[in-house]
Structure formats: structure tokens, C-alpha cells
Amino acid sequence: MQFKTLLPFFVAPAIGHLLQRDVTGVVSTISKITDQLKTMNTTLDKIQGPNDAQAAVDFQNQAMELQTELQTATDSVKNSTAFSDQDSSTIAYSVVGITDVTYAVLGKVTAKRDVFDQLGGSAITDFVRDELQGLQNTTDAFAAALTGKFVKTVQDVAPLLVSALDFHFYQTIQVYVK
């Protein structure tokens, strides 16, 4: 009988550690995604003309890696516990912090449309469009997974950020539509 009374005292620290790891892991993943976007942004600067095919291939590989990272992050968030008020706030601020670099990458991809066309015509621009669509889909899935774990007050404002990201993705994708 005394063991049953003491059990919560043994279990609570272990559970608290697991919950903290979820939040720490999510913030770490968002930081990793930010770093990947910064790398993509730098790679886009290297794509200046038809002689920059290697940089374009690097960008393609980075986009595919980012999609994989976003999918892994989505799966991880889906398997995590719901976030507390503080955790929701911490993660939401991390997500807001990623928007500037996302917009910078999308802006450069928009500006590089003619350069991508010089690199391989419609085959390359179609591929860029498909990569953008894939990134939008995985970003939306990650956002949906996060939103489902936030407290209600953060859930209520999350669609504003997601719709702004979707709008920027949409504008960029439209540049690559035939």
C-alpha cells in the first residue's frame, strides 16, 4: 500500500523530463530548419546564370532535405504530448522567428525564375514549382501538427501565421506556373 502512495513521486520526474524533451526537441528542430533555410538562401545567391548548374543542383538537394526534415518533425510533433501555455508560447515564438528567412528564400526563388529557365527551360522551372509545392505541403503539415498541440489561445492565432506563409508560397509558385 505504501508503494502505491510513493509511485507518483517516482513517476512524476520521469514524465516531466519526457515532456520537456518534447518542447526542447521541437525548438531544436525549428532551429535546424532555420539553419537549412539559411543555407538555401546562401545557395540561391550563388545561382546567377546558366553556368551555375551545380548551385542549382545543391539547391534542389537542400529543398529535398528540408522536406524530409519537415516530415520527420511533423511525425515527431504528432507523437508528442500537448504543449502547456509556456511551451506553446516558446514554440510559437520559434516558429515566428523562422518566417523572415522563409520569406527571403521564397523572394529569391521568385527573383531567380529567369535564371532557372536559363539553366534548363521548362524542365527546371517545372521541377522548381514541384519542389515549392512539396515544401508548402510539408510546411502546412508541420504547422497543422503544431497547432493541434498548442493551447487554445495559441491555436486561435496560428492560422494567421500559416495563411501568411501559404500566401507567400502561393505567390512564388504562381511565378513558376506555365
The shape, in one word, is elongated
Annotation, overall tally of beta strands = 0
Q: State which percent range the strand residues make up.
A: under 5%
- Helix fraction, binned, reads over 70%
Q: Average pLDDT, to the nearest integer? A: 87
What are the secondary-structure elements, in order, as H or E? HHHHH
What can be said about the biggest beta sheet?
none
Report the structural category: mainly alpha
What is the CA-CA span between the terminal residues?
73 Å
**Helical stretch count?**
5
The low-pLDDT segments are 3-21
Pfam families: HsbA (PF12296)
Signal peptide: 1-16
Organism: Akanthomyces muscarius (Entomopathogenic fungus)
Keywords: Signal
Short description:
The chain is mainly alpha-helical and 178 residues long.
Characterization of this structure:
This protein is mostly helical and 178 residues long. The protein has helices at residues 2-46, 53-78, 85-111, 113-149, 152-175. Helix 1 (2-46) runs parallel beside helix 3, helix 3 packs antiparallel against helix 4 (113-149) and helix 4 packs antiparallel against helix 5 (152-175). The termini are far apart. The model is unreliable at 3-21 (pLDDT under 50). One of its GO terms (cellular component) is extracellular region. InterPro entries: Cell_wall_mannoprotein_1. Keywords: Signal. This is Cell wall galactomannoprotein.
